[in-house]
Hints:
Layout: E1 3-7, E2 12-17, H1 22-31, E3 38-44, H2 48-59, E4 63-66, E5 79-84, E6 92-93, H3 95-98, H4 108-115, E7 117-121, H5 134-142, E8 146-150, E9 153-157, E10 166-168, H6 174-185, E11 190-194, H7 200-211, E12 215-217, E13 224-227, E14 235-238, H8 243-256, E15 258-263, H9 271-280, E16 283-287, E17 290-295, E18 304-306, H10 318-325, E19 331-335, H11 345-350, E20 355-359, E21 362-366, E22 375-377, H12 381-393, E23 397-401, H13 404-409, H14 413-418, E24 423-427
Parallel strand pairs: 2-15, 3-14, 6-7, 10-11, 18-19, 22-23
Antiparallel strand pairs: 1-23, 1-24, 3-5, 4-5, 7-9, 8-9, 11-13, 12-13, 15-17, 16-17, 19-21, 20-21
Bound molecules: uridine-diphosphate-N-acetylglucosamine.
Amino acid sequence: xxxxxxxxxxxxxxxxxxxxxxxxxxxxxxxxxxxxxxxxxxxxxxxxxxxxxxxxxxxxxxxxxxxxxxxxxxxxxxxxxxxxxxxxxxxxxxxxxxxxxxxxxxxxxxxxxxxxxxxxxxxxxxxxxxxxxxxxxxxxxxxxxxxxxxxxxxxxxxxxxxxxxxxxxxxxxxxxxxxxxxxxxxxxxxxxxxxxxxxxxxxxxxxxxxxxxxxxxxxxxxxxxxxxxxxxxxxxxxxxxxxxxxxxxxxxxxxxxxxxxxxxxxxxxxxxxxxxxxxxxxxxxxxxxxxxxxxxxxxxxxxxxxxxxxxxxxxxxxxxxxxxxxxxxxxxxxxxxxxxxxxxxxxxxxxxxxxxxxxxxxxxxxxxxxxxxxxxxxxxxxxxxxxxxxxxxxxxxxxxxxxxxxxxxxxxxxxxxxxxxxxxxxxxx
Length: 429
Ligand code: UD1
């Protein structure tokens, strides 16, 4: 199993290209199931989760062609996928595939909407809390689906097709909103989603669905209105830049010091995180090519932050912020309000000497002057990268074990960081 070895202490200087967003690419690929014509997606990141979803979609009969390199392509240019679901030959998504990636459960929405049936295994994915699917099922039932759970599978049927409905989510859910949105595009009549998630990845999917002929308005606000259509057609869409990757590298630079251009990043996708970093002492300068992040001389200041749905501070940057605060000059508090078990990185950060105490959903971090490198274990996707950030700033050697989590969500992490002067390498056993 691969490991990553880091020798900390180098400042980061240079340019890091930001890849397409994993959390938009996955639902966009799934949306390809809604049409019998080809959906072309540009700027798809090269990630293990994308490859895994390709296998899952292939099992339903979807052909996916990945275009090769073109002259003039940039070094880190995302891939272009041609997704063609002309014939859906199987409406079952088996346990062996779905259990490896939670988002693959979302295939239930296009399968039901287009094929009027789906049998999808209950999901797996990162072990951050219980992560149920009750609200996804509620939304599909509101749209007229009959749903049974049997042998670990959700079996959904809509013999006469789905029907538009009012869907009000009792809590903000990204997965619930994606599923309701995709399913409603082919339902008869109007669907109104209230208390919808406002994450930029929802807007990106809605934009692509509209290019495919859907009639969606209000995406990016808590009220999304969808007028159902009978058929969606082919389209071409470029995945938006990854705001979590952007925020992660911005935190790395704030922690190590230095000056890095995050090329292709869009500040409006993570304003709350950029504000927190400014408060912590980073100099953030949006420009035409992306965002420049620098920290020179001055130390890292403490902050108090609660995670929240967009536009609040993202839960997917919580672990990275905690690594940063571990060497702030003072005491910080970070409260996690989205997932109940998302503090697995705390005990690993403690191996670097970080002083963190937990009380329910709040972590109190007593900053220390210098972390020390250590052998650590990656536990989930975002927690893993917090250990990399800590390792970059720590004195001495850090070995991050179980890095397959990182490969699920960060494209060529070691290359991007070593290109800016970090001492980081992958060791394959
Ligand atoms: C998505 C992101 C993930 C991010 C999260 C919150 C993808 C592929 N993943 O995850 O990176 O951390 O949004 O921004 O886009 N919930 C229920 N019942 C449900 C569904 C959700 O109770 O049926 C709860 C969850 O347990 C959690 C909260 O709602 O406490 C938010 O979950 P949700 O927004 O759905 O997260 P995901 O879509 O799984």
